[in-house]
Specification:
This protein is about 95% helix and about 0% strand. It is rod-shaped, with a radius of gyration of 32 Å. It has one helix at about 1-75. The N and C termini lie far apart (about 110 Å). By secondary structure, it is mainly α.
Length: about 80
């Protein structure tokens, strides 16, 4: 009886082991693809933040140049 139970456990482990491994591998691939998508979104947000900072600095520079032009026009 014990030998039969051990044999059944051995057969189940032999059959289900690779299936369990395949399920874990598929789950890992799914998580990896989700993490890649999240990293891509974070990269897009970072690029948008950098672009917003650059746009703001260009606006500030344009305002500064406008102020300089106004000073030059009033000094003439």
């Amino acid at each position: 009886m014990i030998e039969t139970a051990l044999a059944a456990i051995g057969v189940a482990a032999t059959v289900l082991g690779p299936c369990f491994g395949a399920i874990l591998w598929l789950f890992w691939r799914y998580l990896d693809s989700r993490f890649d998508a999240i990293e891509e979104k974070l990269g897009q947000f970072h690029r948008a933040d950098v672009a917003a900072v650059e746009i703001q600095s260009l606006r500030d520079e344009i305002r500064s140049l406008g102020d300089r032009v106004a000073l030059l026009e009033t000094s003439e």
